[in-house]
C-alpha cells in the first residue's frame, strides 16, 4: 500500500507559485555573518571577487580622470604630462586584474542565483526514490525532502521505510514547506510487483516529476567462478528492475509532457575493472539504455540524467554478492575511503535542478581512466591486466 497522508486534495497537482519560489529564495538569505560563512561559502567567495572587481573599476576611473586633468600648456597647445601619463598607465594595468576577477565574481553570483532559483523548482515536485532505505538513496531522500519535494520512498523493507519517514518528518533543518513522504514497498526484481507498485506510486499524487533509479547491488568475484544465476541476479536488480519501473511510469510523464528520469549508474558503467564483471556489465547496460532513452524522450520534453559515481562510503561492498551468490560481507578499502553519501546526494540534487545529461562524480584517477579507455585503449587494458594480477596474487597469499 502507498503509505502516507496527503495534503489538501486541491494542492496535490499545484506547481510552485512565484510567491513560493520567492519565499524559498528569501529563506536562504543568511541571518548573520557566521551563518553566512557556514552555509554559503560560495557566496562569500563570489562577493569577495566581485568587490575586487569593483575596486579595479574605481581604480580605472581614477586613472582616467587623472589622465584627463594631467596636461600642461606648451607652445599654445595642450601636451600631456609624460610622468603623469606613466602613472596613469601603471594604475590602468593594476586595474585590469581586479576587473577580470570582478567579471568572474559577477558571473559566479549569477550562477549561484540561478542555482537557487532552479532549486526552488523542487518545491512541491513529486520525487520517487528507489532503494531509499540506506546509503545514497537515504541521503537523497534527506536532501530532496529538505528542498520541499513530495517524496515517494520505495524499498523492500517496510519497517526501514517507516523509520526513514519518521526521521525526515522529525527534522527541523529546513525553512521551506515540507510534505510527509509516502512509502511503497516492493521488490524491484519482481515484474508483477513493479506493475503493482507503479499503480501505487501514481495513486499517491497522481503524477511523478522525478524518478531516481537508485536501487542496486554490487558484486565481487572471478568470472570463471561465477554462475550464470549470479549474473542474472545482478542484472535483474541493477538493470531490468529500473528499466521496468521507468517504462511503467513513462506513459504518465509523456501524457503531461513533463518529467525527469535519473539513473544512478557507476563509473564502472563507463570502464570495467577486474573481478566486477557482473556489476560492470549491468552498469554498462544501464548507461546504454538511458542514453537511448534520453534521445527518444527529447520530443516529449522528458529529461534523462545518468549519474556515474566513484566509490561511496556505504554498505554496498558489505552487501555485495559473490561468485556463488553468498554475501561478500567485507568493507573494501576503496569503499571505506570513498566520498560521503550526503556529499554525493547533494551533487545528485544539483544535477537534477540543472537538468544535466551525464555526470561523473569520481576522483581524478577514475575520471582520467574514462578518457584513457578511449584515447589510449592499449595502455588502459595493460593497467587493468596488471590490476587483475595484483588482486589475484593478494587473494592467493
Question: What would you say this structure looks like, in words?
Answer:
The chain has 397 residues and is an alpha/beta fold. It has 13 helices and 9 strands. The strands form 2 sheets. The protein has a 7-stranded parallel sheet with strand order 5-4-3-6-7-8-9, sandwiched between helices. Strands 1-2 form a two-stranded antiparallel ribbon. Helix 5 (135-146) links the parallel strand 3 (126-129) and strand 4. Helix 3 (41-69) runs antiparallel to helix 4 (82-120) and helix 5 (135-146) packs across helix 11. It starts with 17 loop residues before the first helix and ends with a helix.
The third-level CATH topology of the largest domain is Rossmann fold
- CATH class term of the largest domain: Alpha Beta
**Percent strand:** 5-15%
Order of adjacent strands in the largest pleated sheet: 5-4-3-6-7-8-9
Q: What is the count of distinct domains?
A: 2
Instruction: Report, as a whole number of angstroms, the end-to-end distance.
Output: 51 Å
Describe the secondary-structure layout.
Elements: H1 18-27, H2 33-39, H3 41-69, E1 71-74, E2 77-80, H4 82-120, E3 126-129, H5 135-146, E4 150-155, H6 158-170, E5 182-185, H7 191-205, E6 210-213, H8 228-256, E7 259-264, H9 277-297, E8 302-309, H10 333-336, H11 341-353, E9 358-361, H12 364-375, H13 377-396
Parallel strand pairs: 3-4, 3-6, 4-5, 6-7, 7-8, 8-9
Antiparallel strand pairs: 1-2
Helix pairs in contact: 3-4, 5-11, 7-8, 8-9, 12-13
Amino acid at each position: 500500500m502507498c503509505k502516507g497522508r496527503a495534503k489538501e486534495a486541491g494542492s496535490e497537482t499545484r506547481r510552485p507559485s512565484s510567491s513560493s519560489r520567492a519565499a524559498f529564495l528569501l529563506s536562504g538569505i543568511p541571518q548573520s555573518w557566521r551563518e553566512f560563512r557556514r552555509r554559503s561559502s560560495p557566496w562569500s567567495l563570489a562577493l569577495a571577487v566581485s568587490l575586487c572587481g569593483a575596486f579595479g573599476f574605481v581604480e580605472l576611473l581614477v586613472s582616467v580622470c587623472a589622465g584627463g586633468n594631467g596636461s600642461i600648456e606648451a607652445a599654445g597647445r595642450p601636451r600631456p604630462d609624460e610622468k603623469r601619463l606613466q602613472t596613469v598607465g601603471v594604475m590602468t594595468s593594476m586595474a585590469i586584474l581586479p576587473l577580470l576577477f570582478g567579471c568572474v565574481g559577477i558571473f559566479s553570483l549569477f550562477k549561484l542565483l540561478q542555482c537557487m532559483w532552479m532549486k526552488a523548482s523542487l518545491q512541491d515536485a513529486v520525487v520517487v526514490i528507489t532503494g531509499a532505505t540506506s546509503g545514497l538513496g537515504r541521503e537523497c531522500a534527506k536532501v530532496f525532502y529538505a528542498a520541499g519535494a513530495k517524496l515517494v520512498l520505495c524499498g523492500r523493507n517496510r519497517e526501514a521505510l517507516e523509520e526513514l519517514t519518521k526521521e525526515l518528518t522529525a527534522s527541523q533543518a529546513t525553512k521551506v514547506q515540507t510534505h510527509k513522504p509516502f512509502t511503497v514497498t516492493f521488490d524491484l526484481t519482481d515484474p508483477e510487483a513493479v506493475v503493482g507498485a507503479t499503480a501505487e506510486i501514481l495513486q499517491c499524487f497522481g503524477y511523478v516529476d522525478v524518478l531516481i533509479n537508485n536501487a542496486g547491488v554490487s558484486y565481487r568475484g572471478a568470472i570463471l567462478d561465477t554462475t550464470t544465476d549470479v549474473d542474472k541476479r545482478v542484472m535483474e536488480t541493477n538493470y531490468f528492475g529500473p528499466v521496468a519501473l521507468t517504462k511503467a511510469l513513462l506513459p504518465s510523464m509523456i501524457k503531461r509532457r513533463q518529467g525527469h528520469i535519473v539513473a544512478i549508474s557507476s563509473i564502472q558503467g563507463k570502464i570495467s575493472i577486474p573481478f566486477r564483471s557482473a556489476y560492470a556489465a549491468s552498469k554498462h547496460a544501464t548507461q546504454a539504455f538511458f542514453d537511448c532513452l534520453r534521445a527518444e524522450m527529447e520530443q516529449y520534453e522528458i529529461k534523462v540524467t545518468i549519474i556515474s559515481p566513484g566509490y561511496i562510503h556505504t554498505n554496498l561492498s558489505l552487501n555485495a554478492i559473490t561468485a556463488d551468490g553468498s554475501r561478500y560481507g567485507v568493507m573494501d578499502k576503496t569503499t571505506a575511503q570513498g566520498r560521503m553519501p550526503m556529499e554525493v546526494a547533494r551533487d545528485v540534487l544539483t544535477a537534477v535542478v540543472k537538468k544535466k545529461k551525464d555526470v561523473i562524480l569520481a576522483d581524478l584517477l577514475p575520471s582520467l581512466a574514462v578518457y584513457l579507455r578511449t584515447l589510449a585503449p592499449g595502455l588502459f587494458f595493460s593497467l587493468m591486466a596488471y590490476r587483475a594480477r595484483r588482486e589475484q596474487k593478494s587473494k592467493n597469499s
